[in-house]
Amino acid sequence: MPVMETSSLTARQYWEQVKANPNRAKFGFGKRPAIVNIDVQRAYTDLDAFKTAYETDPRQIEHINALSALVRELGGPVVWTYVAYLESGIDAGTWGTRTNTPDSLQNIKHGSERAQFDPRAQIAPSDIVMHKRMASPFFETNLWSLLTFAQVDTLIVTGGSTSGCVRACVIDSLSRGYRTIVPEQCVADKHEIPHFANLADIMLKYGDVESVDYVAEQLKALRA
User: Catalytic residue among 66, 115, 121, 165, which?
Assistant: First the structure.
């Protein structure tokens, strides 16, 4: 009877093993890309101000800006999401019931510093700013209908966290038929174990995890 495979590898080592697999088939790029930049807001990016913030690649937001500019040049949707809740926190639902501290999810209030986009994020007037309440930006928003209207076939996913909202978006994206791309340097998490474990899981099941340089090259090729 088959048993679960065991390993002494760290999550980082396992990810490097998965990434190096030359037989791993890719979903690849289509012809109509969009990018969704998940929760690039101070609650998760301002390391000096908030305990909930994290950083994996220090150039993450720079890379997100660069890819967003390329998608924008192609005429594709550039979407920036953020989470924020009512003063009561009731719209966080069960997700907001585990703790109730100043750092808790449901205490990211509308108009608060935690809800503000990181000032380094270059959000253009033509971009779409989307409020979300749950992990996936597809949940109870108009993201799917927006991508359908734009005839998108490829969704680039950035932001955080890799093991939370990014993963949720990737699964929902694949479930809706999109070729889904995660630029490795553009996603981040609080700890390397969930970060690398989820990169491996995404690569094995749900999307393509690529270097930011490769994603930029593919976008430039579509422009040519």
Answer: 165
Distance of CA 4 to the CA centre of its chain: 29
3-class secondary structure, 136: coil
How distant, in Å, are the alpha carbons of 27, 34, 129, 214 from that of 178? Answer: 9, 10, 21, 19
Is position 165 annotated as part of the catalytic site?
yes
- CA quadruple 118, 63, 162, 8: dihedral sign: negative
- Kindly report, residue by residue over 84-140, the tens digit of the pLDDT: 999 999 999 999 999 999 999 999 999 999 999 999 999 999 999 999 999 999 999
> What is the value of pTM for the model shown?
0.97
Q: Among residues 108, 120, 49, 119, which one has the least CA distance to residue 83?
A: 108
Q: How far apart are CA 199 and CA 28, in angstroms?
A: 16
